[in-house]
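Ticket closed. Logging final result for Ferric-dicitrate binding protein FerR, regulates iron transport through sigma-19.
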Amino acid sequence: MQRDKPDNEKYSVTALLGDPSFVRWALQQDPTVTARWESWTAANPENAATATTAKQLLLQIRFVEHVPTEEMVTQSYQRFTGNIAQLRQSPVQRRRLYAVFTWRRAAIWTGLLAVAGTTAFYIWRQQTTLKVSTAFGEIRQVVLPDSSLVTLRANSTLQYRRSLNGQLRELWLHGEAWFRVNPDKKAAGFVVHTADADVTVLGTTFDLKQRKHHTAIFLQSGKVRVDFHDPQRTSRVLSPGDLVEYDAQARQVAASKADSSYTSWTQGKLTLTDAPLSDIIDILENNYGEKIVVNDEKIKERKIEGIIYLENKADILFIISNVLDIQISRKNDTMYFSNRK
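Final structure:
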């Protein structure tokens, strides 16, 4: 039996998330490890704070495992037993030697069907997809099975699957997310698929967004390769600070530089530098589900600078209304932006 570490051992949040006994204590209240972790958290306030953060991350995971219905299982079983019954109902042959070969062949087919059924079940289990989604106005942190950390922005969906041999980690993103990929020497790669591009990484932090035919990739650290689905666009390898944007309708790629403020939404705020109102309108529509009508297109060009906190949508509207001198009104499910009279 592995010896428990002493109470004065220092753990990071990442280390706790990867410790099986801590996970059992945090999620299952396993009595066999309760004394150890209660003693450790009580040792000093720093331990308690670290444990609280790790528990919150574990409790925020909301994966949905796709399990076949009972009807699907029943139908599969009926097909399996039906095939066996047909094999056993082979006509009696006149010559005994031919009959022996017939039954032997039936036995072989029965074995093959059994192996095929077992293999299919194994493949289904290995390819089970983990899925997590966020509602409008919600930001959620997700720890993937490989211990990589994802911060999922509002109105987004993420699916995760590992290949049969465990060599490839694949994800499908609709919306926006920030990734901190956990390096895995045994894995061939970590790939995130969107509607218009695939991003391949080995160990890095980056932001990926795909909304309304627009894809943006910002690399914070490490290195990624972007492969566009458009055959006329060549792959690009990004270095830290690179921001690449792709417009699927215009089929154009734009490259620029950005800093860490680009991902400030992960801390629940927007750090704006000479940002047009059109950018904030996109956030209100994509992340809060608002339908917005602007009566004068020039309003969208008005610029704003500073920090806006995302906790309260009413505060965002109050700030842009007063700073940009616009009138905001609502009728039914639509919000209207216009010049002040």
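The first helix runs from residue 13 to 17. No further action required.
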